[in-house]
């Protein structure tokens, strides 16, 4: 950084800012001139629609604000001596007339009406002069127009219309123009300064982009949600939080926590059993077990709930048809635990599989050589070494259970959970502030569990790999234990397959629970009604997938390999979406992006942004883990040979972390296809989502149609998942042999 460079940056920035200000003032002046001329033309044309029958005057005045936003009006009748008197009026227009009708400016307006010419007062009427008048508080001032009403001959005036237009009606555009001018100045100053002064401009641009993205799409929406919880009727208030902490919602909070604790505990135990069988025993068919175990992760969230209802509901095939049970109900805590456990235990399984696979068995071998029993070795060595992974798996399932509202929407019955309460506040009562507060309340148990887990893990040391790890694992399970685990896992897989088989069977049943006759009509009707949702979902997921993958890998490179001011803050911002409930993210986006300058609500862009931001933390962590295993000297050698940062990333780093890159993209695609929690708030008539369509069919008891769309979604996602698994297949580099 030299004085010459600093002077260059200063001069360039001053020149750009001067040009920016000139462009802003010119555009604002041109807009004001156009707006004033267009407003005069608009009100003149509208005045001609005044009804001839005086009995309709009041209705015409009442409809004026809808035709011309914010406008107020008064109809003036004249007598033979050209004296004007009000015939019908809005309170604001009446107050303006009573206050100013004797002034010279208004007399000029009435004189202009005599010549059939419209007239606009030279200065706006201040809103403070109308204090206390209903409707006047919404504007800082009023532009007043006098508009002639021609008689039948068209050569004389039969009266006049006084119309008041809010002075700030053009303010939103001017505010947008001002915001864009400020942003343009800031962007130029920042980019030019980095390009001129930074040693590595590309990294600087990357850091700026990531900070801008995190602030715009993470920090700002969450701030808007938090701010709204302290505002009621336009003023600061704690009323929303008082209602949030009422017994009604605290009961729902405990319901969510109770459901999360039970689900996380059961799912972690089942996941550990699956992981131990596939990673620490010599059982056959490990790949098949792993594939079937991950099926619930890559299926839509409503599919398992739909199957449970079809099998165990009030008219379920098993409960009602086979067992003849009439009063049994699957709705409530028991049904929710069953569905969430089946749907979320694969998270624990995948987490614990990598943990058990990476454990160095040297200590286990030493214990067995010292004549320790297999059970003793497992309890004193294997299980303690697995505890961090067990806690991580438990935390992941617990967090997902709290944030899940897709399953409770259909299966909760009278059991109350906070995620559903937040959804009802927003969609049922149009209370965004209340929904945001309830979603923020869900963060309390999540953060509590997170910090408790981190505190415990940081106190323990579980390091076992201090040199070259062993490529062999000792099998600790005896034959009876292995048989029991195999039977348990087999029963679980049979149950999972039966659930998915039920979905497929539901496609060909006329009316599940009433008429089980075979039909193909469901397929045609579901595909015709869900065609737009299928197309929209695939397009949006396909658009988000490469964007999320590239941003995640670039962010991982910057976070792992570069040092800069605010690095820790950037990491926290990028990882935040993983910790917050999807309902909170959806509500935050509605609040933040339903107004200029980022008016995105109702577009496909906001859904793509939601996918990218929501799934970015997983890709970032995956890429960072891979980069930490790569020697930085490889990248340094490329730079020494003349490659810049972009070339190093595309030709060296990206090929080396290709598995992480493909994993990030496949995960984003799968999660985008099966998303519900945030997407249900962001859908529009143009951009619908398949999971929401499935929910609507299920809610309306059209189980056949829901089954067809669920099957279509499973086929699409499973096809992409299998393709990614083929591209990421393990070629034996990380496999370990089991020694009995």
| Biggest sheet overview | 6 strands, antiparallel
Please give the radius of gyration in angstroms: 33 Å
Strand content: 5-15%
Please identify the oligomeric state. single chain
Q: Can you tell me the CATH class of the largest domain?
A: Mainly Alpha
N- to C-terminal distance: 65 Å
- Per CATH, the architecture of the largest domain is Orthogonal Bundle
Q: pLDDT under 50 segments (min length 5)?
A: 461-469
Binned, the helix content reads 55-70%
Count every beta strand, where a strand is a DSSP E run of 2 or more residues: 14
Find the CATH topology of the largest domain: MetI-like fold
* Number of domain units: 3
Shape: globular
Separate helix tally: 30
Specify the CATH homologous superfamily of the largest domain.
MetI-like
Question: Could you characterize what this model shows?
Answer:
This protein has 740 residues and is an alpha+beta fold. It folds into three domains: 12-172, Beta-Lactamase; 239-459 and 484-506, MetI-like (MetI-like fold, Orthogonal Bundle), CATH 1.10.3720.10; 522-727, MetI-like fold, CATH 1.10.3720.10. Strand 10 (509-511) and strand 11 form a beta hairpin. The two termini are 65 Å apart. The relative contact order is 0.09.
């Amino acid at each position: 950084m030299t004085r010459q460079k600093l002077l260059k940056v200063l001069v360039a920035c001053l020149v750009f800012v001067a040009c920016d200000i000139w462009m802003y003032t010119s555009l604002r002046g041109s807009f004001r001139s156009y707006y004033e001329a267009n407003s005069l033309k608009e009100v003149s044309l509208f005045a001609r629609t005044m009804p001839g029958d005086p009995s309709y005057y009041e209705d015409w005045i009442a409809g004026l604000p809808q035709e011309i936003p914010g406008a107020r009006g008064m109809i003036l009748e004249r007598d033979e001596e050209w004296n004007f008197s009000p015939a019908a009026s809005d309170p604001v227009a009446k107050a303006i007339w009573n206050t100013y009708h004797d002034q010279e400016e208004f007399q000029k307006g009435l004189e202009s009406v005599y010549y059939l010419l419209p007239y606009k007062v030279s200065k706006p009427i201040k809103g403070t002069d109308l204090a206390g008048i209903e409707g006047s508080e919404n504007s800082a001032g009023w532009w007043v127009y006098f508009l002639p009403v021609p008689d039948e001959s068209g050569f004389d005036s039969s009266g006049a219309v006084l119309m008041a237009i809010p002075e700030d009606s053009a303010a939103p555009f001017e505010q947008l123009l001002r915001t864009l001018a400020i942003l343009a100045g800031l962007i130029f100053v920042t980019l030019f300064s980095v390009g001129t002064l930074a040693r590595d401009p590309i990294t600087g641009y990357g850091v700026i982009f990531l900070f801008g993205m995190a602030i715009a799409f993470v920090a700002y929406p969450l701030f808007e949600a938090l701010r709204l919880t302290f505002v009621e009727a336009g003023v600061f208030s704690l009323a929303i939080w008082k209602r949030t902490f009422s017994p009604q919602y605290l009961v729902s909070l405990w319901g969510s926590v109770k459901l999360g604790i039970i689900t996380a505990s059961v799912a972690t135990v089942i996941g550990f059993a699956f992981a131990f069988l596939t990673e620490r025993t010599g059982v056959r068919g490990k790949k098949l077990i792993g594939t079937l175990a991950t099926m619930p992760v890559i299926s839509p969230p409503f599919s398992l709930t739909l199957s449970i209802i079809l099998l165990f509901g009030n008219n379920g095939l098993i409960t009602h048809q086979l067992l003849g049970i009439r009063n049994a109900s699957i709705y409530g805590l028991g049904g929710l635990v069953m569905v969430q456990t089946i749907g979320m235990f694969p998270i624990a399984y995948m987490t614990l599989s990598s943990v058990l696979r990476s454990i160095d068995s040297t200590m286990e071998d030493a214990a067995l050589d010292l004549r320790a029993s297999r059970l003793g070795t497992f309890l004193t060595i294997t299980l303690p070494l697995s505890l961090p992974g067990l806690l991580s798996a438990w935390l992941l399932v617990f967090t997902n259970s709290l944030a899940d509202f897709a399953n409770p929407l259909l299966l909760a019955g009278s059991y109350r959970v906070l995620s559903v309460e937040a959804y009802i506040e927003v969609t049922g009562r149009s209370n965004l502030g209340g929904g945001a507060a309830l979603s923020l309340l869900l963060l309390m148990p999540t953060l509590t569990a997170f910090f408790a887990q981190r505190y415990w893990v940081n106190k323990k040391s579980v390091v076992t790999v201090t040199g070259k790890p062993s490529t062999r694992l000792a099998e600790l399970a005896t034959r009876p234990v292995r048989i029991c685990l195999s039977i348990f896992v087999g029963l679980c897989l049979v149950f999972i397959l039966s659930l998915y088989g039920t979905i497929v069977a539901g496609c060909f049943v006329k009316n599940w629970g009433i008429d089980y006759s075979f039909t193909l009509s469901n397929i045609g009707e579901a595909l015709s009604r869900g065609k737009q949702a299928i197309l929209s979902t695939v397009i949006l997921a396909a658009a988000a997938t490469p964007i999320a993958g590239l941003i995640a890998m670039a962010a991982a490179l910057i976070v792992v390999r570069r040092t800069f001011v605010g690095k820790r803050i950037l990491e926290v911002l990028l990882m935040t979406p993983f910790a917050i409930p999807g309902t909170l993210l959806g509500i935050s986006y509605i609040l933040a992006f339903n107004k200029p300058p980022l008016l995105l609500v109702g577009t496909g862009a906001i859904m793509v942004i939601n996918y990218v931001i929501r799934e970015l933390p997983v890709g970032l962590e995956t890429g960072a883990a891979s980069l930490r295993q790569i020697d930085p000297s490889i990248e340094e050698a490329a730079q020494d040979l003349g490659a810049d940062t972009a070339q190093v990333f595309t030709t060296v780093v990206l090929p080396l972390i290709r598995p992480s890159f493909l994993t990030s993209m496949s995960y984003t695609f799968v999660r985008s296809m099966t998303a519900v929690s945030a997407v249900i708030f962001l859908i529009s008539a143009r951009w619908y989502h398949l999971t929401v369509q499935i929910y609507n069919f299920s809610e309306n008891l059209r189980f056949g149609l829901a089954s067809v769309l669920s099957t279509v979604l499973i086929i699409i996602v499973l096809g992409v998942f299998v393709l990614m698994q083929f591209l990421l297949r393990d070629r034996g580099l990380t496999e370990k042999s089991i020694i009995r």
